[in-house]
Amino acid sequence: MSNQYVIVPQNYRSDSMVSISPADKRYFEQAQAKQKSPPQQMMFGGYSPSPSLQKSLSTQLSEQNIDDFSRMQKDSDTELVVQYILQLRDADKREQALSELSKKRESFPHLAPLLWHSVGTIAIFLQEIAVVYQHLQPAQLTPAQSSRICSVLGLLQCLALHVQTRSCFLRAHIPLFLYPFLNTSNKSKAFENLRVTSLGVIGALVKGDDPEAINFLMQTEIIPLCLRIMKKGQELSRTVATFIVQKILLDDNGLNYICQTPERFFAVSQVLQTMIDDLHQSQKDDQRLLRHIIRCYLRLSENQKAGEVLKKYLPQVLKDPTQSFIKDEVVKKWHNNLLQNLSIK
Ligand code: TRP
Question: What is the pTM of this model?
Answer without folding.
Answer: 0.82
